[in-house]
Structure formats: C-alpha cells, structure tokens
Amino acid sequence: MNFTVVGPGAIGSLWASYLKDAGHHISLWSRQTANQIVIKRDHCLANTFTNNDPSSVMNADVILVTLKAPIVEQVLTQMKSYINSDAIIVLMHNGMGTAEAIKTHLPDNPLLLATTTHGAYRPSSDLVSHTGRGKTLLGAANQKGQQCEFLVEVLNHALADVAWHHNIDQALWNKLAINCAINPLTAIHQIRNGELAQPQYHAQLTAIVSEVCAVINAQGFKAEENNLRQIIDEVILATSQNFSSMEQDIAHQRPSEIDFITGYVVKCAHQHNIAVPANQALYNAVKQIEQRW
Ligand code: PAF
C-alpha cells in the first residue's frame, strides 16, 4: 500500500521504517526541506524516503499522522488539496480534540484514531530506536472509518501488536488519564516519570485522577478511580527512567500538548459543570511557563 507518514518524529519514523521493511511504499511529509530523508532504525539497514512530495500524497492510500496534536489541524489544512478523498486518515498522537477539526476539513475521508504504547527515541533526524515494544489500538472516528478494520492486519504485519477497538474514544480517554497524571507534573518539576512515585506527589496524583475520572464518566465512558490510579502507578514504574514528552517539550522550550491533554479535560469539565481545581492548576502552571519564553 502507499502510505504518507506526516510528522516523522520518533513514533512516525518508527512506523515509516517498519512499514517500509514490510514492503509498502512510504513517503514522508515533514518540516525538513530536503526532498529525501534517510532513516536508520536500530541495527537495520537505512531506508530512504521521499519527503514533501505532493504526488506521493495524492497517491497515498493511508495518511498516517504522527504530528503532535497542536499542529495537526494546521498541517493537514496545508496538505488538504493533495489528499485524495478515499485516503484513510489515521491520527496517532497524545491527547484528544483534533478529530473534530479534521472531520470538518476532510469530511469525505475515512478517519481513524490510534493510540500506541510502543516506545521510540530519535537521537537525531536520521536515527530511530525502538526502545520498547507495545500495543497499538485503532478505531473508527466516522462512518467511513468503520469500513477500515482491514488496516489492522496491514499494520500488524509491519509492527505488531495492533488491534481494532470498537470504542476507540474509551481507549483514548484511558490514555488521556495517564497523560494528565504524568505529563504536566513531570514538565513543571522537570523530573523523570519515576519521581512521581515519591510520597510528595501522592495526594496531587489522587486529586488529578479523581477529577479526570469524573469527567470521563460525565462524557459517557467508563473509568474507575482505583483502577485508573493503579494503571497510572504501573506506567510510572514501567517508564520510571523516561522523561515524558511534555517534560521534553518544556525542557526544549517547545509548545507542549497541554491544550490537548489537561486542557481538553478542563474544557469537558466546564461543559459538565464539574470542578477540576487540581487539573486547572496544572494547566495554568504549564501555560505560565510557556508564556515566559
Ligand atoms: O507522553 C509520554 O511521555 C507518554 O505518553 C507517557 C506514557 C506519559 C510515558 O512517558
């Protein structure tokens, strides 16, 4: 199949590399200006990809979007005239809230949402390291997307484990809860994920999870506080040596995904008249840091 990977950061480069090795035609769309990009994954042979080539985008069966949430709408709008209306759009990023805008800009395309727990690290623009195997969940965000379950087999062949989720928003909320707990705290304090296991963060984590849980339930999805807290503690432990993506964004003075993580929860909470002071405080703190630059 023909894929265009939009935003070849760590996860995008990982997928581009595995999909190419599985025999697919892969082009990239990135902020780099070169018309060819070389990516080498771990000890495999390096692959060369065409970059920013409109005709490759026009021929793409799948547009795999691995951009960070804040720039998804902007970049897809710029590419819109090249995207075939049959092309399956897959959004794979931390946070929630981009799908509505994409449905408006590209109303005829099948739209899928994905979440992955694969670990990837990009020490430089031509290297990607697969740091931890994980699972990818894929599900439909519109009617046409429901016809695209076959993509699970294609993606699974390239980079297992991939599964279809009939209620992908539930999976995205579960992931959002993890990001709401880990990302802002590690970003504000500039610490590794594992530091959050220290007793000084216990009460704050409990408050964050309790508020997010209330919002998830009000949105009509399932969440149970103790269960969610246990999952978050497990992720903190499993990723204890990692710096979260938001910690890295703040460390490098890049705009973070706060509007699509904590900000999304705060927005939904307001719609349901739910008080979320712990999350609101974290949102304000990250915004304040960003405004200082
Ligand atoms: O955003 C991240 O860094 C990751 O989603 C997670 C799970 C918080 C681990 O660092």
Automatic annotation (TrEMBL):
<comment type="pathway">
    <text>Cofactor biosynthesis; (R)-pantothenate biosynthesis; (R)-pantoate from 3-methyl-2-oxobutanoate: step 2/2.</text>
</comment>
<feature type="domain" description="Ketopantoate reductase C-terminal">
    <location>
        <begin position="167"/>
        <end position="290"/>
    </location>
</feature>
<feature type="domain" description="Ketopantoate reductase N-terminal">
    <location>
        <begin position="4"/>
        <end position="142"/>
    </location>
</feature>
<keyword id="KW-0560">Oxidoreductase</keyword>
<dbReference type="InterPro" id="IPR050838">
    <property type="entry name" value="Ketopantoate_reductase"/>
</dbReference>
<dbReference type="InterPro" id="IPR008927">
    <property type="entry name" value="6-PGluconate_DH-like_C_sf"/>
</dbReference>
<keyword id="KW-0566">Pantothenate biosynthesis</keyword>
<dbReference type="Pfam" id="PF08546">
    <property type="entry name" value="ApbA_C"/>
</dbReference>
<comment type="similarity">
    <text>Belongs to the ketopantoate reductase family.</text>
</comment>
<dbReference type="InterPro" id="IPR013752">
    <property type="entry name" value="KPA_reductase"/>
</dbReference>
<comment type="function">
    <text>Catalyzes the NADPH-dependent reduction of ketopantoate into pantoic acid.</text>
</comment>
<dbReference type="Pfam" id="PF02558">
    <property type="entry name" value="ApbA"/>
</dbReference>
<keyword id="KW-0521">NADP</keyword>
<dbReference type="InterPro" id="IPR013328">
    <property type="entry name" value="6PGD_dom2"/>
</dbReference>
<dbReference type="InterPro" id="IPR013332">
    <property type="entry name" value="KPR_N"/>
</dbReference>
<protein>
    <recommendedName>
        <fullName>2-dehydropantoate 2-reductase</fullName>
        <ecNumber>1.1.1.169</ecNumber>
    </recommendedName>
</protein>
<dbReference type="InterPro" id="IPR003710">
    <property type="entry name" value="ApbA"/>
</dbReference>
<dbReference type="InterPro" id="IPR036291">
    <property type="entry name" value="NAD(P)-bd_dom_sf"/>
</dbReference>
